[in-house]
Write a structure and sequence with these properties.
This protein has eight helices and no strands. The chain is an all-alpha fold. The longest helix has 24 residues, at 2-25. The radius of gyration is 25 Å and the shape is elongated. The structure holds protoporphyrin IX containing FE (HEM).
Amino acid sequence: MFKRSLRLTAVLGLCLLTACAQIQSQPVPGPIPLFERLGGSAGVSKVVGLSLTRAAQDPRTQRSFDGIKIEAVQKSLTQQICALAGGGCVYEGETMARSHQDLKIAASEFDALVEMLRQELDRAGIAAGAKNELLRLLAPMKRDIVAAG
Ligand code: HEM
């Protein structure tokens, strides 16, 4: 009788240990990366494409997009956002200073494009928190993109 309950305790103990080990091996869910909250590659690419297409037609910004292949900028900007927002990409394009220097972009043009991006993020149903996180990441680029003087 004593032997049997000892065996039962041992078996129960083993089961508990196995259960504990299984619980411990479950990955702990971390915070959702910004890139995912922005809709991932497909979502970001769509929002970027819509914003650039608008910018190429809007009288406030269109002059810079004359003769520019929107798809190439869309791809590059999507990759840049993926890299910035924890999506695991490596940005392979030009620096912001170099890719915009010949365009002589004014602050008002920069602000207009950011406004279009904000509106397209809203239209895509992106949460305000994720939208503002992205815009905060892009804001410091203004000094490289806008032409001095
Ligand atoms: C936060 C704001 C901006 C970001 C993050 C951004 C990002 C980029 C990126 C990643 C590229 C591609 C560079 C490459 O592939 O080497 C690019 C190119 C370009 N951007 Fe911007 N940009 C911004 C603002 C603007 C503004 C305000 C304008 C004009 C109103 C503009 C017009 C262009 C044009 C026309 C190109 C293509 C240049 C070329 O191919 O010669 N961008 N931008």
